[in-house]
Amino acid sequence: MKESPMKEDFMKHASPPPRFSGPSLQPINPNLLLPPPRLWFITVTLLIALLFDLFPLSEMLTPWRPELVALTLLYWCIWAPRFIGVSVGFLLGLVMDVANGSALGQHAFAFTLLAFGADYFRRRVASFPMWQQMVFVALLLELCALVVFLARMMSGGALSFGVVYFIVPLLTALLWPLMQFLLQWQQRRAALSD
Amino acid sequence: MIPGDPPPYLYRGPSILARFVFFALLSLSLLLVDTRYQHLEKLRAGIALALYPLQQLARWPRTMMQEVGVYFTSKEMLEKQNTALSWLLLDQGHMVQEAQTVQQENARLRELLQLKAQTPRNTHAVEMLYDTRDPFVQKITIDKGQTHGIMESSAVLDPYGVIGQVTHVSPFTSDVTLLVEKNHTTPVQVERTGMRSVLYGMGAGVPMELRFVSPAADVLVGDRLVTSGLGSVYPPGLAVAIITAIDNDAEQSFVHITARPTAGVASSRYLLVVDALPLTPTLSSPPSPPEKNKSRSRPPVNRKVP
Fold first, then answer.
1. Residue B27 and residue A105: Cβ atoms within 8 Å?
2. B160/B272 same-domain check
3. Of residues B39 and B213, which shows the higher confidence score?
4. Which terminus of chain A has fewer CB atoms gathered within 10 Å of its CB, N or C?
5. How much is the pLDDT for A136?
6. Closest CA to B272 of B62, B98, B121
7. Nearest to A126 among B2, B62, B129 (CB)
8. A121-179 pLDDT, tens digit each
9. Which of B63-72, B84-93, B145-154, B203-212 is least confident?
10. H or E segment at A122?
């Protein structure tokens, strides 16, 4: 295995490395350098995601709508755990249930689970490279879909849906980099103005 | 350290796991109560009210697009549409006149036979807000609610027949469960013979089933099924479905009959809600005996007789 240039760089330096400025073996995640997000921005982004979900689509497109509310919630659970957590997930889920006309508690349960998963793994996920983050997001969304599916089956739900139900979480996970870019807007601006 | 991470020496409420367990159990019990007992209508209506401005806002771009689209519709197309509609009106006007004569005749005959007069029902023209969004339930949302006088369990029609039944009423919107929703039952009769039965929804994309028909019954492929009016939720005589296949299995005591709904072919956006109760309900009318049988054969979910 060829050693990374970063590591060679590290070897060239005098050892032991300076205590605080030593280069790490992993590239620094640029997210860590941003100032913390503001509550108003978090609220606005969640509302916009909800608006996107409420936007009427045609019959053909409706099942393919990406779960932007879930994705936004996931993002803030990782990057703003002070504001957004399990309880916000639960409330957001209730709103989604009413908006979709689905059984109350269906999305609430999914989003509670999603928020917990994101919060539990957030330290690890924050240091992941992008593709690993996307895999993590896809897994979490799929797990949610599966658990909701089981919960609905046990509470007497009817099963009238196709494979699309399990494809949409994967498509949603593909939007993760874009979402990250958009949701960092306020923080980037704040960092620039400093 | 991750931004926003609290220092560990600050107590920040119950642990994340405890909070997760609490909310997960809460949502699961909500799910159970809502699907089994339907006692959460107030909560649902409250959230729906809060959500209404957002819904209107989300609809705004499409409404705008439509208005712009109408503005730029060519004159030729409008003329074409106008001609088609005129022909349709002429065609149906003739039928309406006939229907009026038949109605009067019917009323007179009923009087002669001393039957209870059929009371007219109130109708509301509504627009579909959302198509089916929940992968588990065949439901649509319409743009009128309690404040417009929409009642729970009213029938919802498109130009070709019944599409479903109002199941949740919020102040400004209502949810309509489609007939094809699994285990949704509709009391119907075969138009040709008048034989009564119950039509079961089997889920989206799956043909509906006409149940409890004995092998000796006179049913043919292509027979139209209309609402029977039993249970007095639907007015009688609304088109519901057409029989597509009859599978006469000698081993079973009932015939396996499948049907496809007549409505929803073009999935029109404008619908008609027919009230579940007549305009002037007569209090003295005793509950009809078939009501009892039906409530036994149908599952408790999805169906409420007022």
1. yes
2. yes
3. B213
4. N
5. 93
6. B121
7. B2
8. 888 888 888 899 999 999 999 998 888 888 877 776 555 566 888 898 999 999 999 99
9. B63-72
10. helix A106-126
Please give the tally of structural domains in chain B: 2
Q: What is the CATH number of the domain that holds B266?
A: 2.40.10.340
Option in B16, B29, B55 nearest A120 (CB)? B16
Q: Which residue of A has its CA nearest to B49?
A: A98
The pTM for the full model equals 0.72
Of B19, B50, B131, the CB nearest to A62: B131
d(CA A45, CA A55): 15
Task: State the first-to-last Cα distance of chain A, in angstroms, to the nearest integer.
Answer: 42
The confidence score (pLDDT) of residue A3 equals 47
CA distance B195 to B256: 16
ipTM reported for the complex, 2 dp = 0.76
Same domain? B52 vs B187: no
Residue B245's domain comprises 119-277+289-306
Taking contacts as CB-CB distances below 8 angstroms, the residues of chain B near A161 are 135-136, 204
B205 in the same domain as B57? no
DSSP B175-223: EEEETTSTT-EEEEEETTT--EEEEE---TTS-EEEES--TTS---TT-
Spell out the residues 6+ positions from residue B303 whose beta carbon is closer than 8 angstroms to its own.
Answer: B153, B165, B184, B185
Co-location of B126 and B193 in the same domain: yes
Q: Is B55 contained in some domain?
A: yes
Q: Which two tokens stand for residue B228?
A: 């029977």
Q: Which of residues 66-105 of A touch B (CB under 8 A)?
A: 79-83, 85-87, 89-90, 93-95, 98-105
A146 reaches B (C-beta below 8 A): no
On whether both B28 and B149 belong to a single domain, the answer is no
Contact A55 B62 (CB under 8 A): yes
The answer to whether residue A194 neighbours chain B at the CB level (below 8 Å) is no
The pLDDT of residue A33 is: 67
